[in-house]
Design goal:
Its EC number is 3.6.1.27. Keywords: Antibiotic resistance, Cell membrane, Cell shape, Cell wall biogenesis/degradation, Hydrolase, Membrane, Peptidoglycan synthesis, Transmembrane, Transmembrane helix. The chain has one domain. It is 75% helix and 0% strand. The two termini are 23 Å apart.
Length: 268
């Protein structure tokens, strides 16, 4: 049974790394897969804590740029304004996530039918946006107006509903507010760093009393798998969406949501 749990953790970790930074909802995929695998984690902590692997993946890929940004802060108003923009975008999710934590974990995370419906709705939105000839105004994440950072941060709050997708909501928000396809995805990467780190830290704190040493091997396997897969995705995603857009991910969501919905109706 323990071996099967480790195998499940490996599969779920790979799934987390694959889906975290593309607009298909990593949490939705993991919760659905865990539901059908019969995988149960203590306090639903595994699903959040393995995101640390994805956080470290994006930090490693963006390390040089982050160091350059930090070095520029004392002398560059543009760099300071960008960091302020990230903080402004992060705050709405931080406040709502803390206030609604128990409801999200005990109700929304336990509703596979809702996840499937949100996957399908999100897929329709992505396909619609990809075919709509939007005229982007902004091509560099460091040059968005502050109101755009705030707007993306507010739209990110929709991702509290599993199946919506954090990256999906921020990318859609960026596109609707005037960003081009590449910069919308790239800002989603930058915003992921404080958002996911905050969710990780808060969930670890909330579950500190119920996690045990027995949970650590499963979480560690999921973390490592998520890290490796996320590094691969982050390295290639921006070039892909610049050339091909988001239609693939729209169809991906429709298929996974539709199959999941049928499976739930048949097997429960």
């Amino acid at each position: 049974m323990e071996h099967q749990t480790i195998v499940d953790a490996l599969l779920l970790g790979l799934l987390e790394g694959l889906t975290e930074f593309i607009p298909v909802s990593s949490t939705g995929h993991i919760l659905l897969a865990g539901h059908f695998l019969g995988f149960k984690s203590t306090g639903k902590a595994f699903e959040v804590l393995i995101q640390l692997g994805a956080i470290l993946a994006i930090l490693s890929v963006y390390a040089a740029r982050l160091l350059r940004l930090a070095a520029d802060l004392p002398s560059s108003p543009r760099a300071r304004r960008f960091v302020l923009g990230i903080l402004i975008a992060f705050l709405p999710a931080a406040v709502i996530g803390a206030l609604a934590h128990e409801f999200i974990k005990t109700v929304l995370f336990e509703t596979p039918m809702l996840i499937c419906i949100m996957l399908i709705l999100g897929g329709i939105v992505l396909l619609w946006l990809d075919r709509w000839a939007l005229q982007p105004k902004y091509h560099d994440v460091m040059d968005f107006p502050l109101k755009i950072y705030l707007g993306i941060g507010l739209i990110q709050c929709l991702a509290m509903i599993p199946g919506t997708s954090r990256s999906g909501s921020t990318i859609v928000g960026g596109l609707l507010l005037g960003a081009d396809k590449r910069s919308a995805a790239e800002f989603s990467f930058f915003l992921a760093m404080p958002t996911m780190a905050g969710a990780f830290g808060y969930d670890l704190f909330k579950n500190r009393g119920i996690l045990s040493a027995a949970d650590l091997p499963v979480i560690a396997v999921g973390f490592i798998a998520a890290f490796v897969m996320a590094v691969i995705v982050v390295r290639y995603l921006l070039d892909y969406v610049s050339r091909h857009g988001y239609a693939l991910f729209g169809w991906w969501r429709l298929i996974v949501g539709g199959v999941g919905l049928i499976a739930l109706l048949i097997w429960g």
